[in-house]
Each structure stands twice: as structure tokens, then as C-alpha cells.
Amino acid sequence: MFDAHIAYFVWLIGGFVLCAAETLAPGAFLIWIGGAALIVGAVDFFWPMEFTLQLLVFAVLAAALILVGRRVYGSLERSSPPPSLSRAQALIGKEFFLDQPIERGYGAIRVGDSVWRVAGVDTAAGVKVRVIAVEDGSMLRVERA
After folding, report:
1. What is the radius of gyration, based on Cα positions, of the chain?
2. Which residues make Cβ contacts (< 8 Å) with residue 49, sequence separation at least 6?
3. Which of 32, 44, 109, 121 has the lowest CB atom count within 10 Å?
4. Class of domain 87-144
5. Alpha-carbon torsion 63, 65, 71, 75, what sign?
6. Per-residue pLDDT tens for 36-94?
7. Could you tell me the CA-to-CA distances from 121 to 55, 107, 114 in Å, in that order?
């Protein structure tokens, strides 16, 4: 099938092509298959192997590298918290003082240099409240802290 002197070039070129393809279709999957092809090409360069052995080594390396990659990238995904959907969602659970009293169900709090509209039970200005939900995209539902 392949001449033993040319086969390692095929593995090396294929490995580089797969690694480059990872930049076009990121997902941390092709890089491991490309890495397996590069390893087979490098091993075949120094210790020529028969083509069937090359395929077997490639299959084992690809499977092993994909499992290692999934484990490494999977642990990174589990360790970081999911990003907030919006600035308003990030305020849930935080406590603030009412900037304007809640009258007839609506008032305002100051967060940094911005003012947020809040909804809740009528409460005097200066009282500490906790954000419990986001309504209508940017209005915060609060309760007394």
C-alpha cells in the first residue's frame, strides 16, 4: 500500500492538517486526532512500522488522547461557574439600600453609578433590601434584608 519511507510524511502532513482544522472548527476534538497522527508519523520516522501497525497505533493513540482531552477540558468546564445572563441577573442575592422609597410597589436602588428600578412591598428609603428576581428584563424584585 504505502512505501515505508513515504508513510511518515503522510502521517505528519495529516496531523498538521487536522491540528490546523481545529482553528476553523474549534471544539478540542480534531487536535487530539491530529496529535495522534503526528506521534505516529514521528515514531514511524525513527522506527519504521508496517501500515497495519501504524493504523493500530493511531487508533489507540487517538482514543487515548481524546479521553485525556475530554477529561482535561471537562474538568475546566465543571470548575468555572456559568456566566451570568445579564447584569441584572448578576445582582440576584445581593443586598442594597433603597435610594428611593418603594411606593405603590415601585422604587429605586443605586448600584455603583447606575439607578435600578425595583418592585416590592412599600418600604421607606434607606432600608436594606435583597434582590430576589429580575422581572421584565431589567426591573429587580426585592425583599427586606
Report:
1. 29
2. 4, 43, 57
3. 121
4. mainly beta
5. negative
6. 999 999 999 999 889 899 999 999 999 999 888 888 776 555 566 666 567 888 899 99
7. 70, 10, 22
